[in-house]
């Protein structure tokens, strides 16, 4: 064996493993089948004939084999793509009646102060006190807002119970950003709910009337990940105030539905759900240009845009207009041009800031008259990596500009005139950050959610539109290689092969799909991390995600039985210390600390280097030691090792110490002294007797089997009701009859 490092007792050398799998019997069906398909895929006639036992190769094989090989390749690719395709559905949810209490803060944006969509009336009708707070929609100030929030909280008894932000006509994203930050600054723990109008469409007949409001949905999903306790949820109301039931809104705000992303339509509440899209259905021949023309690709010199440009050239596009912030100076542009021209496609590379409407208009005017614009692919966008807490107001325009304004300009300028009325393609590149959220990308998610909504509005008008929300791409795409890729893999996201991603795009276009999410997700790894801070109803119907949240606990001494056996030998004072040692050992493993490194029990888990991934790993290891499932939110609910040890001491089966009965005995002694010092009359004595007997019946029936010395009957609800009547009635005749019934003497004459 190889030596350990000097002065260490830990091995860092990988253990050798057996090479290759155990082979099956020679000539087994699996082996023959494998050789058969290998021969087909390589179009090797000789190997194919040998595999199926033919001495001579029939002439027909030369014709059939390429067709079979192509079918095999397409089938394998289609199967792989089916595992990457997701869609968003809306499911009706059960809505119990509910009421609200306490004081609710209703945040209205200036310019919209007289229009809260009837939300204020709904809150008051449900029993809430409502305090209105108007915020400058154009320039919301975080610090001023925090001061006003503190004043509002101080002015009401019991503080603020909940906060509702009604989005105004100008999308309200800056207000939402400032509000999330200011609530934290003001130390207000009430959940923040964001109400939009016409931001989502729940079925084919529903319409998105305010695609700008969709930005708040993208932002809100990230806010929920970064501030799980501060964030309440997202609720979309229809534009028509008479088309929804206020009681349904109240039920969601009260938390009785368990939903945090809903649309209220009429008397129904529909929850947002992620589902598999399955195999693509090609309803028409594969798309190819109907005539010679130009396709504009924004971000066309970036990694994603370049992949799309090559695909468009393969589909026969005559002219590609590639634009980006750096134009022809972007890395790899010369190689891209050579590839495209070799495919017979004319290429123009230019520089353009698509967030500038005039620049976009000039770009469109530059399209050659003999090759009119036939398609747009909007792949431009600025990535973001900044927590909501640290995001400045200027970042809203910087991050969303290329995505939101660029798409809006392209949409408006190609639909305002008849010149572009027959666009065959209008493809936008969205992100999984808009589909289910991604920490550190709140504004990026907001911009991409707008793209999804914009495409839906185009489709409702009968215009071309396809939105693909991508997971990270491999290579030089949105996911870099090296440490960034390792970071993604540990969290269950495998960067997409650009070739496979392009094939998924082709499927979406060929199949006429309007919205699709494409990502390679290991749900077993991704789900526990994603839900470590709060549950996600969005994933509640995805079977792989549901299975991932079930922690298997081993049976036998290697699991919780061993721990409980150890704890059983310890006194009540020693048990928390043993649990503390277990927690520290687990921390050492998860955080890769040296074995002898000291861990302060009073130090917060967040200060020890925990993130969502390590929180889940820690939970899983500890659950196996304890022999029972533990919540993924463990380190968030109990923020220090000492607090967690105390929690486990109080909740693990077999660890709770015997109750000290001293205070109970003292209470009985005090009762005896009161009775001795002030003897009750016969009627009062009868009352006390019945009351005490009811207590003894409950006490003895709940004890260990065989120790009930008086009765094996647990008093039922009717018995308890009679005892309550005896203790409270002022009618002497009724009281005497009730007592006699309870003591078995029968009613009085």
Structure description:
This protein has 749 residues and is of the alpha/beta class. The protein folds into five domains: 54 residues, no CATH class; 186 residues, Rossmann fold; 225 residues, 3-Layer(aba) Sandwich (Rossmann fold), CATH 3.40.50; 95 residues, ACP-like (Non-ribosomal Peptide Synthetase Peptidyl Carrier Protein, Chain A), CATH 1.10.1200; 66 residues, no CATH class. The protein is built from 27 helices and 17 strands. A 15-stranded mixed beta sheet has the order 3-2-4-5-6-7-8-1-16-14-13-12-9-10-11, sandwiched between helices. Strands 15-17 form a two-stranded antiparallel sheet. Helix 7 links the parallel strand 5 and strand 6.
Annotation keywords:
single chain; 749 residues; alpha/beta; Rossmann fold; 5 domains; 15-stranded mixed beta sheet; two-stranded antiparallel sheet; 43% helix; globular
């Amino acid at each position: 064996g190889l030596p350990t490092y000097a002065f260490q007792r830990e091995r860092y050398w990988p253990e050798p493993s057996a090479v290759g799998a155990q082979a099956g019997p020679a000539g087994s069906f699996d082996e023959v089948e494998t050789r058969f398909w290998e021969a087909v895929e390589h179009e090797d006639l000789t190997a194919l004939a040998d595999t199926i036992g033919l001495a001579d190769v029939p002439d027909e094989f030369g014709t059939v084999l390429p067709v079979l090989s192509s079918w095999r390749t397409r089938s394998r690719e289609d199967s792989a793509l089916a595992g990457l395709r997701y869609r968003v559905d809306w499911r009706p949810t059960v809505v119990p009646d509910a009421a609200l209490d306490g004081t609710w803060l209703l945040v209205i944006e200036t310019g919209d102060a007289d229009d809260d969509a009837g939300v204020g009336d709904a809150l008051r009708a449900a029993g809430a006190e409502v305090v209105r707070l108007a915020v400058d929609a154009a320039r919301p100030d975080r610090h001023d807002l925090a001061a006003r929030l503190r004043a509002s909280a101080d002015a009401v008894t019991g503080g603020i119970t909940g906060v509702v932000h009604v989005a105004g006509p100008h999308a309200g994203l800056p207000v939402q950003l400032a509000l999330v930050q200011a609530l934290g600054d003001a130390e207000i723990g009430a959940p923040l709910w964001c109400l939009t109008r016409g931001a989502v469409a729940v079925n084919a007949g529903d319409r998105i009337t305010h695609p700008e409001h969709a930005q708040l949905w993208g932002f809100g999903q990230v806010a929920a990940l970064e501030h799980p306790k501060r964030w309440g949820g997202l609720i979309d109301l229809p534009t028509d105030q008479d088309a929804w039931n206020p009681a349904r809104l109240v039920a969601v705000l009260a938390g009785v539905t368990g939903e945090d992303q809903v649309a209220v339509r009429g008397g129904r509440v529909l929850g947002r759900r992620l589902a598999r899209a399955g195999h693509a259905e090609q309803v028409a021949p594969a798309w190819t240009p109907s005539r010679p023309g130009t396709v504009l690709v924004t971000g066309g010199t970036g990694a994603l845009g370049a992949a799309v440009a090559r695909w468009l050239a393969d589909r026969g596009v005559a002219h590609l207009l590639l634009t980006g912030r750096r134009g022809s100076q972007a890395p790899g542009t010369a190689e891209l041009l050579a590839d495209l021209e070799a495919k017979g496609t004319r290429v123009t590379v230019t520089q353009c800031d698509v967030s500038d409407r005039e620049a976009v208009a000039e770009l469109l005017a530059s399209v050659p008259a003999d090759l009119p614009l036939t398609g747009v692919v909007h792949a431009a966008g600025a990535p973001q990596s900044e927590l909501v807490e640290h995001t400045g107001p200027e970042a809203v325009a910087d991050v969303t500009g290329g995505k939101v304004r660029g798409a809006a300009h392209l949409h408006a300028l190609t639909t305002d005139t008849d010149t572009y009325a027959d666009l065959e393609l209008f493809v936008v590149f969205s992100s999984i950050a808009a589909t289910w959220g991604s920490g550190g990308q709140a504004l990026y998610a907001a911009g991409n959610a707008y793209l999804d909504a914009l495409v839906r509005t185009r489709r409702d008008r009968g215009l071309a539109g396809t939105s693909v929300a991508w997971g990270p791409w491999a290579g030089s795409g949105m996911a870099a290689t090296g440490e960034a890729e390792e970071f993604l893999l540990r969290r269950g996201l495998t960067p997409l092969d650009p070739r496979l991603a392009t094939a998924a795009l082709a499927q979406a276009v060929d199949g006429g799909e309007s919205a699709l999410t494409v990502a390679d997700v290991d749900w077993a790894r991704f789900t526990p991390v994603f839900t470590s801070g709060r549950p996600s109803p969005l994933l509640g119907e995805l079977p792989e995600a549901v299975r991932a949240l079930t922690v298997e606990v081993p049976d036998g001494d290697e699991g919780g039985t061993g721990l409980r056996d150890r704890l059983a030998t310890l006194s009540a004072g020693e048990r928390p210390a043993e649990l503390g040692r277990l927690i520290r050992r687990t921390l050492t493993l998860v955080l890769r600390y040296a074995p002898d490194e000291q861990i302060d029990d009073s130090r917060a888990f967040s200060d020890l280097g925990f993130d969502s991934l390590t929180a889940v790993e820690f939970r899983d290891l500890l659950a196996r030691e304890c022999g029972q499932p533990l919540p993924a939110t463990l380190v968030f609910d109990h923020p220090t090792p000492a607090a967690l040890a105390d929690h486990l001491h109080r909740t693990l089966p077999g660890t709770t110490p015997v109750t000290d009965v001293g205070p109970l005995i003292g209470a009985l002694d005090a009762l005896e002294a009161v009775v001795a010092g002030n003897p009750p009359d016969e009627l009062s004595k009868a009352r006390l007797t019945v009351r005490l007997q009811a207590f003894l019946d409950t006490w003895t029936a709940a004890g260990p089997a065989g120790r009930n010395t008086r009765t094996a009957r647990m008093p039922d609800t009717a018995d308890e009701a009679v005892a309550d009547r005896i203790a409270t009635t002022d009618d002497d005749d009724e009281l005497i009859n009730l007592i006699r019934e309870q003591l078995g003497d029968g009613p009085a004459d």
